[in-house]
Design brief:
It is a single chain. The protein is of the alpha+beta class. It contains five helices and four strands. Helix content is 38%, strand content 26%. The chain has a four-stranded antiparallel sheet with strand order 2-3-1-4. The radius of gyration is 15 Å and the shape is globular.
C-alpha cells in the first residue's frame, strides 16, 4: 500500500493554484508498533512545519466508522494547513526534511494524503 507521495503527484499538486493555501487531509493506518514511530516523526517534523508556515489544525484517533466499506477505517486523522501548495512542495523537497521521512514510511502500513480546497461561498454543499 502507498504511504508516500510520488514525484508526479507532487508536481501535479503544484500546478493547480500553487499560491493558494491548502489543507492536507492525512488518513493514517499504523504498522505494528507504528504509532510510537509516527510520534517521533511528528516531533521531528514540527520544526519543518514552522519553517514553511504549516499549521497542524487537528490530530485525532479514528473511531468506528458510521458509514464506510470494509477496510475504510483509519487509525488517525490529521488536518495540516500550509500557506500554499508551493510551500508544501518546498517542505517535502527539503533535504533535511527528507532525512526524516523514513520514519513516516516505517510507521505506516497505509495512508491517504489528499489536498483540499475550501468550497466557494455559494458553490459548496
Amino acid at each position: 500500500m502507498a504511504v508516500d507521495p510520488t514525484g508526479a503527484a507532487l508536481a501535479a499538486l503544484r500546478v493547480h493554484a500553487p499560491d493558494e493555501p491548502v489543507v492536507m487531509l492525512n488518513l493514517l493506518r499504523f504498522a505494528p508498533e507504528g504509532r510510537a514511530v509516527y510520534q517521533e516523526y511528528s516531533r521531528r517534523a514540527a520544526p519543518f512545519l514552522q519553517r514553511y508556515g504549516g499549521e497542524l489544525l487537528y490530530a485525532g484517533d479514528g473511531g468506528t466508522p458510521l458509514v464506510a466499506e470494509d477496510g475504510q477505517a483509519w487509525d488517525a486523522v490529521l488536518l495540516v494547513r500550509y500557506p500554499s501548495r508551493e510551500a508544501f512542495g518546498r517542505m517535502v523537497a527539503d533535504p533535511e526534511y527528507q532525512s526524516i521521512t523514513a520514519l513516516r514510511s516505517k510507521a505506516l502500513s497505509e495512508a491517504v494524503l489528499q489536498p483540499t480546497a475550501p468550497w466557494a461561498r455559494h458553490g459548496g454543499a
